[in-house]
Amino acid sequence: MKISARNILKGTIVEIVKGATTSHVLIDIGGSVVTASITNEAVADLQLEKGGRPMP
Fold it and tell me: InterPro entries of this UniProt entry (predicted)?
């Protein structure tokens, strides 16, 4: 399945792996884990944290 930045996935953040400029956000969406690659700035702006739920 192909998804874009406009997709909203309902789930729980299980891990955030920060790199120099990009973070990998692992989201459990009902037993399947997907990984979103977003900027570190976006992680901060969206106030994402482990155990949280991504919001639009």
Answer: Mo/tungstate-bd_C_term_dom, Mop_domain, Transp-assoc_OB_typ1
